[in-house]
Amino acid sequence: MGEEGVGRFSVSLNKGLLRQLDKMTREKGYDNRSLAIADMVRSQLVEHRLETVDGEAAGSVTLVYDHHSPRVQESLTGMQHKFREMIISTLHVHLDHHNCLEVLVVRGKASAIKMLADRLIGAKGVKHGKLSITGTGKDLPA
Ligand code: NI
Prior knowledge:
alpha+beta; 4 helices; 28% strand; binds nickel (II) ion
């Protein structure tokens, strides 16, 4: 609970939407609708902020690639050295004989993170990649 206490407002939803909200609230294990809605609001606030203010952000970039693919490792390692100040941590897992999974934890300006993720994901030989980006939590009430 934030130090400002709780504010209340009423929301009108059509019954179908409300039923689905309550079903999702139960399935996701929230104690009540208000907690579920608060998380949805936080998620939208983070996204809105990342879209409108180029603020401090953090996230992870997940990459899957075949390490036999020519020059993919040199290319990814080169980029990681170049952007080492944004990359906090990396995890490498050898998934099978061919495929590697790499997870890079990154922080920096939202625009810089997106640019770095695009370059990593777009590198030749990367089969699949995904960026998960969030705020640093500083400006977000619990
Ligand atoms: Ni590997």
